[in-house]
Amino acid sequence: MKNKTIALGLLVSLLALGLQASAEDGEYKNVVPLDANTYNKIVYAYPFLDWGASGWFSKSSVFPDAKVFSLKSNDYVQISSLHKNRPMVLLLGSITCPAYDLNLPKLKEVQKKYSDKIDFYTLYVRENHPTDMYKAHTDFDMKKKAAADLKSKDGITHDILIDDVKGTLHQALGNFGNAVYLVGTDGHLNHWSPFTDPDLLEKGIKNLIAANGIAAKAKWVDGMDVHPLASKRFTDKQKMETMMTMQSRKKSAEESQKESDEAIKEMKPTLTKLEPSLGKHLPETWEKLGHLKKADWDMFASVFKDLRSPLRDRYAEWAKANNVDKKEDVPSLVLRDDTPAK
Prior knowledge:
Elements: H1 2-17, H2 36-45, E1 67-70, E2 75-78, H3 79-82, E3 88-93, H4 98-114, E4 119-124, H5 140-153, E5 159-162, H6 168-173, E6 180-183, E7 189-193, H7 198-210, H8 236-247, H9 253-274, H10 276-279, H11 282-290, H12 297-321
Parallel strand pairs: 3-4, 4-5
Antiparallel strand pairs: 1-2, 1-5, 3-6, 6-7
């Protein structure tokens, strides 16, 4: 029994570090590892499909290390060096991500409130909803320019970090489009969420500060799996303003839709392979999501509720692939409905 406990502990450590290895090694495995082209283009058609395919995090998790490019220093940095002296908030986003845009005003307030104790960063990932102005990335310079535009247009004061074109760190984190990670000086997490919720993030920050920045000693805060556009936390006006911002990042709505339709056709074989039950319904789902221009947020919430099923399925698939079957190994993150409207 003691040996089993030790082996289980080693497995959890490997999961936390985000190591990728073959099934024979018995180490951490991505459920759906994607090549650079698929990683960048899949979001045209189905941004939810591969979320959670690479990994999840629990109370004992150590945030994975990686080398990323810093817009501030114009050089590469190690993630581990950024939370060595002060806790770190790492947001995931892109200039075509409405979820990131919708949360930004509140996130700026939280950043300003705790800037003397916590460092904020955004990790620029793939374009969540590529347009004819901001296309799916094919090289690093393209990604770097989009990140610089995001910083300028959205008035972001913190440093923006840029993942490589194949999304090495992003894939290790699970491919979520607008997740958030709160990392202590010990390298451990005390909060993460598939979708950023500024209120939950602030709660985690308070707990981390109370524990002197040591996440392993801080009270854990569960995350949220509801897309901000389907959330009760935002008014219809706020949602519409975000969608107007997204429209401004297209040269032509018609051309962007055309590119999306073409990408759907191109990616359908891959999508069907990854998620057979959803791949065949992809065009219908995409068409429904296109109706957002009519501000039918209830419709979006309904569609998204259906799309949450693959998120849970991905976790179950990941847990099985990595032999995560003990209660203490399962992330305390409980996928749950939205917070009450304020």
